[in-house]
Structures are given as structure tokens and as C-alpha cells.
Write a structure and sequence with these properties.
By secondary structure, the protein is mainly alpha-helical. It is built from 18 helices and 2 strands.
Length: 378
């Protein structure tokens, strides 16, 4: 269930994000396949070694960042270079804990507002699309809303199913026989472009660490597990490095799906719950075989339809990030400034809005002054 939920709720966002930064259909399918392999292998090997339900997932906020980054770069080789740098930074976070502490010490209002700014334009899609083409998009939203009330974990997969029916009605079923449907890894030689590294690689590292890895450790600790942070970060970073060469933007410690496998529903005996995580890893390896069909489905879809499904999947993350950003009344102006700059989608000197949002948020916080008790940490 965790593997199916994790895959179905965000694979469209991954493929759309990779295509936004210049990936061809075959390269996007390769990226999704590489991520499934990386998640699958780590979800099997790491829990087996530590005998803990330590689970991994691809970076969903990172995929959302790729969609936004399409406004600043469409050179996929340069994007691969940024993915590579992100993987290296994750490894360094494990080898040198001070780097991890630096990232996690970014004030919550700034980190939360930056993530909210990345997600906001995507989460607007269900609203605008339902007005523009109600016959196609309203059923997707209604199905999501009904199941979100009755069976939350099925809401996004069901919405994706309704969207697929809409695609079949509008674009036919040719995507099911596309030549790129067979699973294959496509190597892409990375290009290290400083501008793309700053506008994509660095923000990707920050949202991956602050948006998913850190909450993942919190989830595990909630259920009484204390995994070794250095080994976990170094391992996920190495897996991200390997996946990046074939189009994967990076993996991280899982948070939401981790709760399914680390809780008592997985097994009454805490010492045996790691088996559920290893099983999810095996499921990801199987799901990866359908990466080509997933990419073909996204390619055959009207772009706005994919954004609608992605927007519905990310509403929960948007709520969480906005709550984090505005929780401290002393720093709401800082949070709003960060959010507005990031959500604006501006590009200055070729560098995207996520970087400038962080910069402006930091400058506003320093100018307005920080309370002596601090702003709180991620």
C-alpha cells in the first residue's frame, strides 16, 4: 500500500518536472525508472541491515521545484549536473554533520515559505482548469474530494485514474503502445552550469533535506526508532548520485509513507516492521517496469491535466508548509516576503525564484531583527 500510494500520488509530477527542464519522453521515463530502482534498492538493503522500518522516497517537493525551474532552464544535461551536485551535498551532509545542521538551521518561516512558494502555482491549477474546461477537470476534482473524505490514501490515485480516462477520451490510447514504453535507463552526461546549480541544485538540496529528510527522521523517532543519521544521509546521497546520471532528481528519507510502515499497522512487534519497508522496496522495483508507460501517459496528456493532478497531490504539503511559515507571528512578514518572491517565478541573472526567495527572506529577517529567543529551526 505504501509503495502504490507513493508511486501513484506523485509519478505524474516527477515526469512533468523532468520534462519541464528539458527531458525527452525517453529521458523522463529513464529518470522515473532510475528513481524507482534507487528507492527499491535502498528500501530493501537499509531496513534489512539496520532491522528498522527505514524507508525512502523520491523528493516530491524537489519534483515540484523542477516544474518551476522550467522557466529558467530547459537544458536537461545542465539539470543533470544540478541533480549530481544535490546528491553530492546530501552525501556530504552525512559525512560532515555540520552541513546538515546548517541546512536544518534555516529559520522555519523562510524554509516553509520557500516550499509554499514553489507549490502554490501548481496547487492553483485545479481551480483555474476547472473554470476553463469544467467537463474534463471537475470530475477529477470531485473524485479527489469525495475520496479525501472517505479514504484519503486513495484520493490521488483515483483522481489519476479519472484523469487517465479523460486522456483516453481526448488523446486516444496510442500512448499504451509507445515505443518508449519498455523500461530502459538512458545515460545523460552532466553539464555543470553554475547558474543552473545555484537556481536548481542548491534549492533542490534544501527542499529535499528540510522538506522530507528531516520530517522523515521525526516520523521514525515518533515510533521509537533512532536510525543513524550519517549512514542514512550518506546512503541516500549515493543512491541519488547513481540515479542522477540516468535522469533521477534524487531520493530522500520518506515521511508520510514511512508512518504506514513504522506504525503498529505494519506489525504489532516493532522488531519486525522492517519487513514491510523491504516489501515496499520490492514493489517499487516492479512499479519501475511501468515507468515508460507512465511517461507516455503524461506526454499524451494536456499539460494542464497533469498539473491538476499534481496540484491535488500537493495540497497537503502546501498546507503544512504555510502553517510552518506563518506559525510564528514575529516573522510573518519575513515568511510572506519569501513566499511572494518564490511564487512569483521571477528569474534574475538566469537564477530562479527559489534562490531569490531564500535570499530576500534572509535579508528581511536580518533587517527587521530576530527576537532574542530565535526564530525556530527546521
Amino acid at each position: 500500500m505504501a509503495a502504490l500510494t507513493g508511486f501513484a500520488s506523485s509519478f505524474v509530477l516527477v515526469v512533468a518536472g523532468l520534462q519541464a527542464v528539458g527531458a525527452s519522453d525517453a529521458q523522463a521515463a529513464s529518470g522515473l525508472f532510475a528513481l524507482c530502482l534507487a528507492v527499491g534498492v535502498t528500501c530493501i538493503a537499509v531496513p534489512w541491515y539496520f532491522r528498522m522500518p527505514i524507508s525512502f522516497a523520491w523528493s516530491t517537493p524537489g519534483a515540484a521545484l523542477l516544474v518551476a525551474a522550467g522557466q529558467t532552464t530547459t537544458d536537461f544535461a545542465a539539470a543533470i549536473g544540478a541533480f549530481l551536485v544535490c546528491g553530492i551535498l546530501i552525501v556530504l551532509s552525512g559525512l560532515w554533520p555540520w552541513l546538515g545542521r546548517t541546512i536544518t538551521s534555516i529559520p522555519k518561516p523562510i524554509a516553509g515559505a520557500m516550499l509554499a512558494g514553489i507549490l502554490f502555482p501548481i496547487c492553483l491549477a485545479p481551480v483555474t482548469a476547472s473554470v476553463q474546461q469544467p467537463l474534463l477537470f471537475v470530475p477529477v476534482v470531485v473524485v479527489w474530494l469525495v475520496l479525501y473524505r472517505l479514504a484519503r490514501s486513495l484520493a490521488v490515485p483515483a483522481a489519476m485514474l479519472v484523469a487517465a480516462i479523460g486522456i483516453a477520451l481526448t488523446a486516444g490510447t496510442g500512448w499504451m503502445t509507445a515505443s518508449s514504453s519498455a523500461p530502459a535507463l538512458v545515460f545523460v552526461s552532466p553539464v555543470l552550469d553554475p547558474v543552473v546549480i545555484v537556481s536548481l541544485g542548491i534549492p533542490l538540496f534544501i527542499v529535499t533535506m528540510a522538506g522530507q529528510s528531516v520530517p522523515g527522521f521525526v516520523v521514525l523517532s515518533t515510533f521509537g526508532y533512532r536510525p543513524p543519521p550519517r549512514a542514512i544521509l550518506a546512503g541516500s546521497g549515493l543512491a541519488s548520485l547513481a540515479a542522477s546520471l540516468f535522469g533521477g532528481h534524487g531520493i530522500n528519507l520518506a515521511a508520510i509513507t514511512a508512518a504506514l510502515m513504522a506504525g503498529p499497522d505494519a506489525h504489532p512487534d516493532r522488531s519486525k516492521r522492517w519487513v514491510a519497508t523491504a516489501t515496499s522496496g520490492a514493489a517499487y522495483l516492479v512499479l519501475g517496469l511501468g515507468a515508460g508507460y507512465a511517461a507516455a501517459l503524461v506526454s499524451a496528456s494536456p499539460p494542464i491535466l497533469i498539473t491538476v493532478v499534481a496540484g491535488l497531490a500537493l495540497l497537503g504539503a502546501l498546507v503544512t508548509s504555510l502553517t510552518t511559515a506563518l506559525d510564528d507571528a514575529r516573522h510573518r512578514i519575513t515568511a510572506v516576503a519569501t513566499f511572494l518572491v518564490t511564487a512569483s517565478g521571477i528569474s534574475v541573472l538566469g537564477i530562479g525564484s527559489a534562490f531569490w526567495g531564500l535570499l530576500v527572506g534572509g535579508a528581511v529577517m536580518l533587517w527587521l531583527g530576530r527576537a532574542s529567543t530565535g526564530a525556530g529551526r527546521v
